[in-house]
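Hi team,

Filling in the usual template for the complex we talked about on Friday. All components are listed, including any nucleic acid strands or ligand strings, so the model treats them as one assembly.

SUBMITTER: L.P.
PURPOSE: interface mapping
COMPONENTS: two
RESIDUES: 576
SEQUENCES:
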Amino acid sequence: MKILVTVTEAATVDTVFEIDGLDIDDRYLSTDLNEWDAYALEEAVQLAEAEGGEVVTVTIGSDGVEETIRQALAKGADRAIRVWDERLAALSVLDPLTKAAVLEAVVADEQPDLVFTGVQSADDSFGATGVVLASRLDWAWGTIVNDLQLDSTVAHVTRELEGNLEELTDIQRPAVLTIQTGINEPRFASLRDITRAQQADIAVESFADLRFDADALVSSIERTDLYEPDTDGEATIFEGSPDETAAELAAVVEETGVTR
Amino acid sequence: MTVLAVAEHRRGELRPVSLELLSAGRELADATDGDLHAAVVSGDVESHADRLNREGVDTIHAVADGEEFNHDVYTQAVTQLAETVEPTVLLAPDTANGLDYAPAVAERLGAPLLTDALDLSYDERLTVTRERYEGKVETTLDIDAPQAVVTLRPGAWPRADGTGDAEITAFDAVIDESLVRSDVTGYQEIGGEVDVAAADVLVAVGRGIESEDNLDIIRDLADALDATIAASRPVIDNGWLPADRQVGQSGKTVSPELYVAVGISGTVQHVSGVRAETFVAINDDPNAPIFEVADYGVVDDLFEVVPALTDRLTRS
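RESULT (copied from the run log):
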């Protein structure tokens, strides 16, 4: 069994930051393996360990994302593919339809039995690439999967809905499954795994390698503004030493009457 | 222009977000003196259509295929309806189910997809407001396309009210059963011994607590307040507390007299589940979105403030 896992490098913003045009200045961004993708990868690695098979990651990104890809290799991926073309850098927004178009070409090349993605990325949070990819592939799909049992033709999944409710769904294979956090416990990589991952080859695929038609890259979404939101809240912020702020908070608590 | 809003229902109940879609849809349609269409797929479409018949809705399409939500049926039905109605903007809820079919509809229509929209406007082209970086910034996106699919954040628009005089019409979708590759076999509720929704006082803990061992300071604070301990998602995912303690979109909605959020950043997935009379937040990040919803806050190290607060409350 071959499982293809999409791996994204997600950015988080420092406590203090500045906006530079239509993005946040790189100095204030920290990057890491997208949290949801870490769970998707772990689920694939556990399946491969139990049943045999290969786990291949695919990442869309410039060479700057290779450290993140090596994190995925250290956490058990057998191989990694990075797809990049400078035409991607020119896009205002790397939206789910564009990403899925590129990933479809990788699936065509790799012919996996299953594709796992994280439910969403922590930075842009579109939460849609997996379903678009499945639709392009004409495959079945399951989203927000927090439990998975496979048999030869069907994926039995539990989907997380709102309000402590879960849906039990049987999905025909092959399928794209978007994996929710909490489905497993992603492993920490050992020093040996990290060393091995540092030495591993990352296959770099161009659009030409993938026979990908770059005409599909015409995105109709343009970012026009980026700003810190107006806060609706009028929170009273207490300042001072921990003892002083604790005293203020204690007074608030006492005022509510809940401690009587 | 024409706007098409696709309602959501579950286990026989129309979900409130459906009425929010109508408000957003009407605002958008008004920008060009256009029409608002609503649609309901599966289940008791007649009664759902009646509930969708609010002021400002022009036409309601009832698609009577299937009993409960199935994304393969929805994808086919909504795509066919959109090909018939030809909306400029198709609206769906940014929910577990909305995100389970709307991306496929967008792909099939060849239309751009914008999810989790917080605001919409239309001036010759559609503009969508979204968050980035877990709510620390907002961005506006202009859409240069004749058609777009947009999912709307629940709670971002008011619910449509009033009584409408929409035309309610049946839409006969042609569902190819060979393309129905998923089968919903049932539902299960996450139960547990503790009902955080029933608690008057909650101390809620988030990722900032860093490890399970550190939960002791939260237990001490909860004891001092005679409070129930709740949690945001990362704490549950790490297995530090059981799932019945989770507050938020995928957990419980709570409405306590006092809610003390400790080390919780305040993603919309969490705060959408909190309706507290008094909301207190302790977090060392001054830009954490939790301070947008809190009544009182302290920007400091929780490992210093929480024990000090417990000490104060115990002594008083």
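MY TAKE: Chain A has a mean pLDDT of 95. Chain A has one domain: 2-216.

Thanks, L.
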